[in-house]
Design brief:
It comes from Streptomyces meridianus. Residues 20-438 form the DUF112 domain. Helix content is 73%, strand content 1%. It is built from 21 helices and two strands. It has a two-stranded antiparallel sheet with strand order 1-2. The longest helix is centred in the first third of the chain and has 36 residues, at 106-141. The protein starts with a helix and ends with a helix.
């Protein structure tokens, strides 16, 4: 009850005219910046830090919360319409969202994403209010073997469900893990795959890899096939969801937070893992599995809801432990320190107005996101009517600007071109891009947790499975790996597979 009273006081703070204006500004700026490939919510918050120097801390963080959610929705917009995610959490959305857009259902995909963000954000924020102490205590008790098991689950899940060939999926994952190895060894300080370059000693920025594999790789692929495609404008379709689409989406909207919130609350890679796992779950549970890969709306609704709930979950460990689990949370932590505020268990006692105003603003931001962006879904979908040469030329321009803005180094543009050519080659030979991306994102962290777990067990492999949590995760991995082959051999699908094979 005390938390409820504090939350009501927070709504009084968040709904003041000035703070409401900052929340709306943050949502609009976040969406606008998130639409640009390579410039996600983390960079948006970082770029706007100097602007907030003169603001009250509460107003500044309310605005940052709006930027966070708006940037995530903006990233999903470009994923759906252009197959170029604005940030890594929107990568999964492109798998089903872009085929929907190409088939004239871009508005429906954007509407499913917007409602998914709203549902996931609201449910995730409710869980933040109710379960923050419990989730924080669980996060403290998770060790290196558990982290490593979670990351292995992400690797296996992604490579097992994408594409028709697991070999190609694991080849793509290997490419990503190799790129992730570039830089200094975190434990020994030795250089790896840097070719003597001091710039590469810091590793390749994830934004450079994401923009190279998706934006540049997609643009080069489109350019290579542009003459073979027709120049007819794409029909954007109806502006809203029909009853059948709502029936297929409401369960993924509710399942997404169950996956997204816990992964956001623990240091396990932010929104990337839960969006991948949500996609896997929806594909397994859907009655329309044959549509996956060609535009299944469940593959948009579930991951988007999971991503939004994960964003709320990241605030649990950041506010209660001072532990950021995403790049955006890390920038927000720097902003707290800029105001002389140290997040941790005492933050709720020392700064209750700020904390509960921030939490209440998450609810306000969700409503603003839905009210502002759902009506604009047809407008965003009309991006597909722009001539493709002009559209992808603009994407390349903003991608280059976004990558150069990271460090101001010309070598980043060279890396962008090299990785873009790798993305083009992967498309040419049928390798899914997603496993490579998750390999880059989680590879270094997985290596660190593996080595840490082995150090704690004096090099014994038993140290990787010495906790109940890790055993459960490895059991899930075994089901993912062994389930499909056993189902094909002994399940109901066997006769149809034989029929297709003999008929071809």
């Amino acid at each position: 009850m005390n938390s409820l009273n504090l939350l009501l006081d927070g709504f009084g703070t968040a709904l003041s005219p000035v703070n409401l204006l900052w929340a709306a500004t943050g949502v609009l700026l976040g969406t606008a910046i998130g639409v640009l490939p390579g410039i996600g919510p983390a960079m948006a918050v970082a770029l706007l830090l100097p602007v907030t120097y003169g603001l009250d801390p509460t107003a500044a963080f309310i605005m940052f919360a709006g930027i966070y959610y708006g940037g995530m929705f903006g990233g999903s917009t470009t994923s759906i319409l252009l197959n170029t995610p604005g940030e890594t959490a929107a990568v999964v959305t492109a798998i089903e969202g872009h085929p929907m857009a190409r088939s004239g259902r871009g508005s429906q995909a954007l509407a499913a994403a917007a409602i998914g963000h709203f549902a996931g954000g609201v449910i995730g924020t409710v869980l933040l209010v109710v379960l923050a102490p419990t989730v924080a205590s669980l996060a403290v008790g998770i060790g290196a073997p558990d982290y490593f098991a979670i990351m292995v689950l992400a690797f296996i899940a992604v490579t097992s469900v994408l594409g028709r060939s697991r070999v190609r999926g694991f080849a793509s994952l290997l490419i990503g893990l190799t790129i992730g190895l570039i830089g200094l060894d975190a434990m020994t300080g030795q250089q790896r795959l840097t070719f003597g370059s001091l710039h590469l000693a810091d590793g390749v920025d994830v934004v450079v890899v994401a923009v190279g594999l998706f934006a540049l790789g997609e643009a080069l692929w489109v350019a290579a096939h542009l003459r073979r495609t027709s120049g007819k404008p794409v029909d954007v379709g109806r502006p809203w969801l029909g009853r059948a689409e709502v029936r297929r989406s409401w369960k993924p909207w509710l399942r997404g937070p169950v996956i997204g919130f816990p992964f956001g609350a623990i240091p396990a890679g932010g929104a990337e893992i839960p969006t991948f796992l949500s996609y896997v779950t929806e594909k397994r549970l859907s009655k329309h599995r044959s549509e996956f890969g060609t535009g299944a709306i469940e593959g948009v609704a579930g991951p988007e809801s999971a991503a939004s709930a994960s964003a709320a979950g990241t605030l649990v460990s950041m506010l209660t432990l001072g532990l950021p689990t995403t790049a955006t949370a890390a920038v927000m932590l720097a902003a707290f320190q800029q105001y002389g505020i140290q997040p941790g268990p005492l933050l709720f006692e020392h700064e209750p107005k700020l904390v509960w105003g921030l939490i209440a603003s998450l609810f306000v931001g969700m409503v603003l996101l839905l009210v502002l962006n759902l009506p604009l879904a047809p407008v965003w979908a009309k991006l597909l009517r722009i001539p493709r040469p002009h559209l992808y030329a603009g994407i390349l321009f903003f991608a280059g600007v976004g990558v150069y803005a990271i460090g101001g180094e010309p070598l980043d543009l060279v890396l962008l071109l090299v990785i873009g050519l790798i993305g083009l080659g992967m498309r040419r030979f049928g390798l899914p891009v997603l496993p490579a991306m998750i390999g880059v994102i989680l590879g270094p962290a997985a290596e660190q947790q593996l080595r840490r777990a082995l150090q704690l067990s004096d090099g014994s492999l038993a140290g990787l499975v010495n906790t109940p949590f890790s055993l459960v995760v490895y059991a899930v991995i075994a089901v993912i790996l062994a389930g499909p082959p056993l189902w094909k051999r002994f399940g109901r699908g066997r006769p149809s597979v034989v029929e297709v094979g003999t008929g071809g």
